[in-house]
Each structure stands twice: as C-alpha cells, then as structure tokens.
Write a structure and sequence with these properties.
Blueprint (H helix, E strand, L loop, with lengths): L1 H4 L15 H13 L5 H10 L2 H7 L2 E3 L4 E3 L3 H10 L2 H8 L8 E9 L10 E8 L4 E7 L5 H9 L8 E4 L6 H10 L3 E6 L4 H8 L9 E8 L2 E11 L12 E9 L3 E9 L8 H26 L11 H18 L5 H9 L5 H6 L3
Parallel strand pairs: 3-6, 6-7
Antiparallel strand pairs: 1-2, 3-4, 4-5, 7-11, 8-9, 9-10, 10-11
Helix pairs in contact: 2-3, 2-5, 2-11, 3-5, 5-11, 6-11, 10-11
Length: about 350
C-alpha cells in the first residue's frame, strides 16, 4: 500500500512539511479500517497509536529520544482535503484486469451539502465480486452522463460487459463502450427514454421461449425473477449495437412486483437469459455492496465532511476499507469493523499489508 501511495503528488508546499504524504494517508486508511468516521476520530486514533504502530506507518521522529510523532488532526484534515481524489481512487482501487463485468452507479454523500453548495455526488465503477475500481466526483447527479466516459476511459475494458442504470442508457455511451473501448454493455431502460421504453414494452414478450426463472430466499423474504430475452436485430430498434432485449420481472412476496427492461450488444450465444439475469443483478449489487454499506457501516450520509476534496477522498478510504475487509474474509462489513476495532493498532495494518 505504501508503494502504491508513493505515486501521489504531494499537494502541500515543501516548506513546513513535517509528515510525509504517504504516512498521513496510511494513518487515515488504518483509522477508517478501525472504524473512524471523521477527521477528529482519525486524529484521536493517531494520537492513541503506540510507537510500534507509528513505526509501521512511517511516522516521523522527533526530539532527542527520537520518538515517533503522529500527524495532528489539522494535518490529517488538510491532506485529505487537498489530495488529488482521482489519483487516490485509482491507486487504492482494484485492477479491473481479469474481470468480466463492471457496474457503474452514482451516490450522493448527503451530509456534505452546505448551504447552496450541493452534496458531493460520486460516480463509481465496481466489479461483480464487489471490488471498487475507481471513483469520480461529478458536479451534480445529472452530470453523471457527461462523466461516464471520463470514469472508464483510463482502463482496458476489452471484452468486459459494463452495466449501468437507466440514467446511462444513452446512445453515446453505447457507441463509446463498443466502438472505443471494445467492451460490451447491458443498460437498463426506463421511462426517461420514453420512445425506447415504449418500443420495448410492445415487443411480443408473451411469445418468447428464451426465459429463465430464479427463486431466492434471504433476509426474511422470497424473491422470484423471470428473465425473458428476445433478439431485436431487424426490428428497427433505435439504439446503437443492440442485439438482444430483456424483460426482467421481480416479485417479492404477494404484492410487490417490478418489471424492468434492458438492452445489450451481446448475442444469444454470448449471453443466455441466465447470464443476462446475472448481469442485471450485478448492477443492483453495486447499490447493496457499496453504497448501502458506506451509509450503514460508516454513516456516510451523516458525515459533515464538506470542504475541498474531503468528501470524495473519505469515500475512497471507505471503499478501500470495504474491499480489504472482504478480502480478509468478512462478508458482514459492520462485523468486520467491530473485529478490527477490538485490536485497532495491529489488525488494520495487517489487513492493509503494512509491514
């Protein structure tokens, strides 16, 4: 981790630097992994850290006795608020190489809203197994559309299927993925594309024989999903590279029923109804495995971190903590945070691979 963070540019002036950028970020990452949710909590964790932990984190020496000194809360706040968020997200994010699916979705950190300044809205890309690849702050939720290509362009996504919600069902996105990135897409279609939505609704779904039934039980409820898939080549569907359309009906209990439509450039040979159902689920997974977890385990929407690049950098540190805990075998992130908090100055460092 220290080696990866060494690639970040230090945003501070050279004069007056007392702590290295890497050591401060390692302190912050370790504290968040131990359950810290604010600058004050990170600073308190740093002040309480023993000398052996500070040595592992690369804290500076001071005084005649050469005692390790932790960064102050003010230093931690300043560095997190100034550090390049794109660089931090890329350096701490997962490598998408080898993945077959990437889900894109956005989330607002509601607590970061201040007066007339809107809450920080963060667009993220996540693999199907729950690893965050990168994250980007966008001016507003509506700006997700213009930032979609910026988020994905740095990565080699050849052969990867990118899923996204209805906001990103844009013709430009489909062309970008297929023509520029040599990737595939599965995009949800809702009423924000009224013409396309009506075209899909009018397809002969009752006659479709390519279908998949899935039943699941969990969290005290039953869910049944029926995925019907239809080849749309030659049906004059107004969407670039579209080969198949899907209708996915989800029923929970006796009364709750939802039907969504999706489009993909994948052929029937590449993606059966079962595969398309799994791809659609991977899009819903980013909400449950990332956004929901950041809010419930870390209380992100209640966080009052607002200034500078603080909101997105703290979100990146939370993403890192979630990924590291999952790699460590913790399927329940809240329980994983409690586990690290019982030994807060060794377990977080061990999980981060800090020698």
């Amino acid at each position: 981790m220290a080696g990866r963070l060494a690639g970040l540019a230090d945003p501070r002036r050279r004069r007056g630097r007392r702590h290295s950028l890497v050591s401060v970020l390692l302190v912050a990452a370790s504290a968040v992994l131990a359950g810290a949710r604010s600058y004050a909590a990170i600073g308190q964790w740093a002040r309480s850290a023993p000398q052996d932990a500070l040595a592992r984190l690369g804290a500076r020496f001071a005084g005649v006795l050469q005692v390790r000194v932790p960064p102050s809360t003010a230093t931690i706040r300043r560095i997190i608020a100034l550090t390049c968020p794109g660089g931090l997200a890329d350096l701490t994010g997962a490598d998408p190489a080898g993945t077959t699916t990437l889900a894109v979705d956005g989330k607002s950190a509601r607590g970061s809203r201040s007066g007339e300044v809107p809450a920080a809205h963060l667009l993220a890309a996540m693999t199907a197994d729950g690893r965050t690849v990168t994250q980007l702050r966008v001016p507003h939720k509506k700006n997700e559309i213009t930032c979609f290509a910026v988020l994905l362009d740095p990565f080699d996504l050849t052969g990867v299927t990118v899923t996204a919600d209805a906001l990103h069902t844009q013709r430009e996105h489909a062309r970008f993925l297929v023509e520029d990135m040599q990737a595939h897409y599965l995009l949800i279609v809702k009423a924000n594309q009224p013409g396309l939505h009506q075209q899909l609704r009018r397809l002969p779904w009752k006659d479709v024989t390519a279908r998949r039934y899935d039943r699941e039980r969990g969290h005290g409820r039953k869910e049944t999903r029926v995925t019907r898939v239809l080849t749309v080549i030659g049906l004059a569907l107004d969407f670039p590279h579209a080969v198949q359309a899907a209708r996915i009906t989800r029923q929970t209990g006796k009364r709750t029923r939802q039907t969504v439509y999706a489009l993909t450039d994948l052929t029937a040979r590449q993606a059966s109804p079962q595969v398309i159902g799994q791809l659609a689920r991977s899009q819903w997974t980013i909400e449950n495995r990332l956004h929901f977890v950041r809010d419930t385990a870390f209380r992100e929407d209640a966080s009052k971190i607002r200034t500078g690049r603080g909101p997105e950098n703290m979100a990146t540190l939370r993403n890192l903590a979630i990924e590291v805990l999952r790699q460590g075998g913790h399927t329940n992130i809240a329980a994983g945070l409690r586990h690290t908090s019982y030994n807060p100055f060794t377990r977080p460092l061990d999980l981060l691979g800090i020698a």
